[in-house]
Amino acid sequence: xxxxxxxxxxxxxxxxxxxxxxxxxxxxxxxxxxxxxxxxxxxxxxxxxxxxxxxxxxxxxxxxxxxxxxxxxxxxxxxxxxxxxxxxxxxxxxxxxxxxxxxxxxxxxxxxxxxxxxxxxxxxxxxxxxxxxxxxxxxxxxxxxxxxxxxxxxxxxxxxxxxxxxxxxxxxxxxxxxxxxxxxxxxxxxxxxxxxxxxxxxxxxxxxxxxxxxxxxxxxxxxxxxxxxxxxxxxxxxxxxxxxxxxxxxxxxxxxxxxxxxxxxxxxxxxxxxxxxxxxxxxxxxxxxxxxxxxxxxxxxxxxxxxxxxxxxxxxxxxxxxxxxxxxxxxxxxxxxxxxxxxxxxxxxxxxxxxxxxxxxxxxxxxxxxxxxxxxxxxxxxxxxxxxxxxxxxxxxxxxxxxxxxxxxxxxxxxxxxxxxxxxxxxxxxxxxxxxxxxxxxxxxxxxxxxxxxxxxxxxxxxxxxxxxxxxxxxxxxxxxxxxxxxxxxxxxxxxxxxxxxxxxxxxxxxxxxxxxxxxxxxxxxxxxxxxxxxxxxxxxxxxxxxxxxxxxxxxxxxxxxxxxxxxxxxxxxxxxxxxxxxxxxxxxxxxxxxxxxxxxxxxxxxxxxxxxxxxxxxxxxxxxxxxxxxxxxxxxxxxxxxxxxxxxxxxxxxxxxxxxxxxxxxxxxxxxxxxxxxxxxxxxxxxxxxxxxxxxxxxxxxxxxxxxxxxxxxxxxxxxxxxxxxxxxxxxxxxxxxxxxxxxxxxxxxxxxxxxxxxxxxxxx
Length: 766
Fold this sequence. Notes:
CATH class of the domain at 337-591: Mainly Beta
Shape: globular
Helix content: under 10%
């Protein structure tokens, strides 16, 4: 297999800031805020997988994502060092990321690679700076990090006999370093000047008997907060009750001369006289169940982070109302499924597990428009009753304002202009023929209408699967009528069978992926003909996750154990089908494409290349025949925030490829576009090609199989190719050998039958 990475991608991997923004786009959610930090005039906020900042004076917002080089594993803590002008970002797996003043990013993975600590106990909970050392409170102890050298120092294990103890927060007070632990080991302290702090015997229990969520040096006092939300002031060997929160604290900090204590429903600010300055219970106009996570102060502005709505700001004197300053984005980062129409990109967040058991999550949906994100909250969807586990989106190809949400538990919901108009399930009085699961044997009444893979055919009928029933194939006609088809004679275990997303090929054949029965083909126009492709038919695994049809009507079948293909046209004339693997030569040795990979999704671009999304291995782009791998994007070598690809969609008009992952939504600005019907929209970019440009010239708006010839002004041929789709690329070289000289170059385009022609020009300036 050829592993080809062009120059721009290699540069992207080396410097995300320099090249990433040119080739990638990010669409992260900033609503679930895990921590805040501040400089003199700027707020820093971290959601689980991205960050943003706001200038307190100008109001300017900036985002920092994986496209900018921020590679984390669920952000858990952030801190800004005014002395060193660096922002530190801690993660759930122990990764420490340093963002420098020039926006360069450095990652330190010593904690990640520490083999003596189990992976689940490496989370960085808090970062505290003292005399150039950042003390990282983790789930196993305290780690020193030198802010000048950017190197790790000692690690302190505080438990009995050096046991790992979760430390929520650390501080230094009167020459002692204090640690608030969360596993019943209380508050522990040791002399900071002690050269043997890595000896657990030097850490003495100060106050025990409970779980502690925070400890803070504020002014001349030392304050700690326990798991019940009680704020204590430490006076010698005694604890004096200072204040109380209604529940466990989520944050305790000093900011701009104030002490701020926050719990899920309240935040309290104390001044330097240890008097309450202000208290916030509810944000006017917001939901009552909003959850506060942290709060801070920049200048005269108070900021509060939430788990659902991002960050709110308000003047300290309340001279103006609360304002939500959160950047635009979808509702969540764990995007389960996406769907692209001409003008919109839809994203849903609920769904099912590996075995299609619904997760019963109650999430809203998000829609990307030219004006930004339109987020529809769950309550706006549940107007007809609960609508959970939204797993897929079906868009009417003749009216993109008509959308159907597929639920793995609650049926089918129709939206017109973002507003629910009809709920289809087993009880709605509209003869839907949708059914609840038929394998339930419990005594408590249970209804679960599991709909997936809604797909429109050329007659605008909406086909879908209804899992765990004997007639799983359902059809909603444009007029509102319903039809159903039984698979009793095809599959043996219908009452326990689940289905992936359906596909309809150009012959009208429906292809249904199943969990354990392989791939089912069905065509009602052929007397309800069925064919099952399973292990006896060449499938490596009968757990089929996805199926795609390419521009040659060739099926690409993704399973939990690899890839198979077959030509869909054979269904029309044959009674059995054989799926085959793709084998290529690597260093003279035959190798199977995608062998043993768990394939989640496959999409075909305008050039008939295949984008393949996997569970754990990132995304691949392979050539039309699968003999060459053009790209292999992973979290390590690209802005992908995760190697777990949940879904892929392609904007065929621009070539942009969207990747939905469990850590966020990003896009790669591809170049392969869908073929046009004529040559009226051909364009060339960039034009002119200026000195220093190292990329490819893009010629788009082509018909399929168009012949493209490029000559110099004297008619000498320098390049020739045939398009597969609507776009071709020219590297400004003469047949790939040497760069062409400065000058005007003619581009002659003709359709395959020569009935359509076009002539364009491009200027090259060296």
